């Protein structure tokens, strides 16, 4: 019996894991990666490419290596707790080499179309059309499809919300176009948004600019990556802590968390105290959405 064919769209972190899982289950994966390399979001390039995620040179992950590693392939002990994007790429290459995943990836191959076959109700199969960098198109039939592309490809630049932007004489751009701080030395800069990228870039630019302002339409509870004793904050997300969150009163947990955050610095003093309680704006109270939650990067 032939192994069932599985199309994996995208060769980033999710795509690599899906290839490995397919192989573990005796399936036959074929990964289509539109670029010439694996890594997806975490591969730094000097010039942003259309319809592709783009990171700045200094990006360090917000998840500790103990929490982000693939369960069957630990990150090397000598790597730092929070890795630079270049080390994340090194790790992905180690993972791909160790499990021989690269031979299942077709690089420079863009997926143009994915649709159910006419007999899908009986066969469960999919028609996929691809195109390589020479422009050659191919049609394939697969038993299953795994979509492993990210959601950071299209920048959100709502210029209609900024009256007078058409006469603004300075430069404005989205964070995906930001790479290094040097070109902003001795200039006045406003960073709009207090999510992870906004906080990161504001801290980096503050070291070289003449004046730096970080603008946010509402407050945020600021957490740093490192917790008590120098341990990564996310390693304390244990079952005991989850049990406490589920059993103790919401207000009690919020008061305790907010006291600890304000002990580091008073959010009211910096006009950062949000109207919502710690973790309120989320599907589960102990998780927070990007606009209301930012790491401190000092």
TrEMBL record:
Q: Which residues form the signal peptide?
A: none
Q: Which organism is it from?
A: Labrus bergylta (ballan wrasse)
Q: What class of enzyme is it?
A: oxidoreductase
Q: Which GO terms describe its molecular function?
A: flavin adenine dinucleotide binding; hypotaurine monooxygenase activity; N,N-dimethylaniline monooxygenase activity; NADP binding; trimethylamine monooxygenase activity
Could you tell me the membrane topology recorded for this protein? Answer: Single-pass membrane protein
Give a Gene Ontology cellular component term annotated to this protein: endoplasmic reticulum membrane
State the InterPro entries in the record.
FAD/NAD-bd_sf (IPR036188), Flavin_mOase (IPR000960), Flavin_mOase-like (IPR020946), FMO-like (IPR050346)
Q: Which family is annotated?
A: Belongs to the FMO family.
Per the UniProt entry, the Enzyme Commission number(s) are 1.-.-.-
As its record notes, the protein acts as a catalyst of: hypotaurine + NADPH + O2 + H(+) = taurine + NADP(+) + H2O; trimethylamine + NADPH + O2 = trimethylamine N-oxide + NADP(+) + H2O; N,N-dimethylaniline + NADPH + O2 + H(+) = N,N-dimethylaniline N-oxide + NADP(+) + H2O; hypotaurine + NADH + O2 + H(+) = taurine + NAD(+) + H2O
Task: Give its localization.
Answer: Endoplasmic reticulum membrane
Q: What does this protein do?
A: Broad spectrum monooxygenase that catalyzes the oxygenation of a wide variety of nitrogen- and sulfur-containing compounds including xenobiotics. Catalyzes the S-oxygenation of hypotaurine to produce taurine, an organic osmolyte involved in cell volume regulation as well as a variety of cytoprotective and developmental processes.
Major localisation: endoplasmic reticulum
What is this protein identified as? Flavin-containing monooxygenase
Please provide the record's keywords in A-Z order.
Endoplasmic reticulum, FAD, Flavoprotein, Membrane, Monooxygenase, NADP, Oxidoreductase, Transmembrane, Transmembrane helix
């Amino acid at each position: 019996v032939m192994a069932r064919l599985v199309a994996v769209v995208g060769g980033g972190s999710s795509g690599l894991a899906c290839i490995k899982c397919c192989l573990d289950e005796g399936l036959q994966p074929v990964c289509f990666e539109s670029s010439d390399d694996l890594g997806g979001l975490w591969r730094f390039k000097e010039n942003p490419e259309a319809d592709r995620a783009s990171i700045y040179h200094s990006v360090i992950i917000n998840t500790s290596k103990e929490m982000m590693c693939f369960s069957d392939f630990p990150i090397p002990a000598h790597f730092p707790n929070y890795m630079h994007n270049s080390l994340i790429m090194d790790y992905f290459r180690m993972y791909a080499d160790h499990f021989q995943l690269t031979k299942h990836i077709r690089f420079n191959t863009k997926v143009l179309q994915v649709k159910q076959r006419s007999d899908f109700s009986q066969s469960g199969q999919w028609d996929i059309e691809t195109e390589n960098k020479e422009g050659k198109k191919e049609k394939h039939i697969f038993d299953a499809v795994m979509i492993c592309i990210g959601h950071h490809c299209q920048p959100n630049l709502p210029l209609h919300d900024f009256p007078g932007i058409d006469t603004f004489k300075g430069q404005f751009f989205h964070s995906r176009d930001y790479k290094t701080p040097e070109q902003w030395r001795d200039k006045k800069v406003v960073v709009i948004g207090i999510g992870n990228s906004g906080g990161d870039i504001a801290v980096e630019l503050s070291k070289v600019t003449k004046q730096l302002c970080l603008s946010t339409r509402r407050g945020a509870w600021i957490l740093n990556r490192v917790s008590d004793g120098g341990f990564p904050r996310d390693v304390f997300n244990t079952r005991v802590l989850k049990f406490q969150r589920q059993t103790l009163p919401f207000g009690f947990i919020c008061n305790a968390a907010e006291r600890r955050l304000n002990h580091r610095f008073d959010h009211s003093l910096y006009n950062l105290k949000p109207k919502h309680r710690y973790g309120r704006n989320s599907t589960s109270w102990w998780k927070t959405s990007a606009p209301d939650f930012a790491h401190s990067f000092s």
